[in-house]
């Protein structure tokens, strides 16, 4: 029998990891980008790895300002969010050679936002047939690299 070990998810599934406040605001305050898994800090937005990614390279572009609706985002931050989305598309295509890219936002709990109080743009690479029996039937994701490896590769690709 094969086993898939995911010890980094223990705090999440056991309920011992309780966020006090907004996880994005807390991450932005962290001085150690590796610890926060922040790949890039811009003027208005930052790029952070998704802690529970669908695929390797799954990042989110998050405004520093705590906002719950896209329409509240100032123009400069909106422009930077789109510019960083374009940059991350390039980085992901170069690093992972995906067949496509998913780009999107879930605004509000009813729309599927896991963190409804702070808008964020998901950017993630996708491959033909990447939704196999493990993810569809087993509700399990199999990732070929750790978040630390992904973070390092992405930082290097961004010239950091």
Any overview of this molecule?
It is built from six helices and five strands, in the order αααβββαββαα. The protein has helices at residues 10-14, 23-29, 33-36, 75-96, 133-136, 147-157; strands at residues 38-41, 45-49, 59-63, 100-104, 121-126. It is 33% helix and 16% strand. The protein has 160 residues and is an alpha+beta fold. The protein has a five-stranded antiparallel β-sheet with strand order 1-2-3-5-4, sandwiched between helices. The model is unreliable at 132-138 (pLDDT under 50). The chain has one domain (19-157): HIT-like (HIT family, subunit A, 2-Layer Sandwich), CATH 3.30.428.10. Strand 1 (38-41) and strand 2 (45-49) form a beta hairpin. The relative contact order is 0.18. It is globular, with a radius of gyration of 16 Å.
Annotation keywords:
single chain, 160 residues, alpha+beta, HIT family, subunit A, five-stranded antiparallel beta sheet, 5 strands, 16% strand, globular
Write the layout of secondary structure elements.
Blueprint lengths: L9 H5 L8 H7 L3 H4 L1 E4 L3 E5 L9 E5 L11 H22 L3 E5 L16 E6 L6 H4 L10 H11 L3
Antiparallel strand pairs: 1-2, 2-3, 3-5, 4-5
The class by helix and strand makeup works out as alpha+beta
Number of helices: 6
Return the domain count: 1
Low-confidence stretches: 132-138
The CATH architecture comes to 2-Layer Sandwich
CATH topology heading: HIT family, subunit A
| Shape category | globular
CATH superfamily: HIT-like
Helix content: 25-40%
N-to-C CA distance: 41 Å
Query: What percentage of amino acids are in beta strands?
Result: 15-25%
Q: Can you write the helix and strand succession as a string?
A: HHHEEEHEEHH
Q: What would the average pLDDT be, to the nearest integer?
A: 85
CATH top level class name:
Alpha Beta
Tally of strands? 5
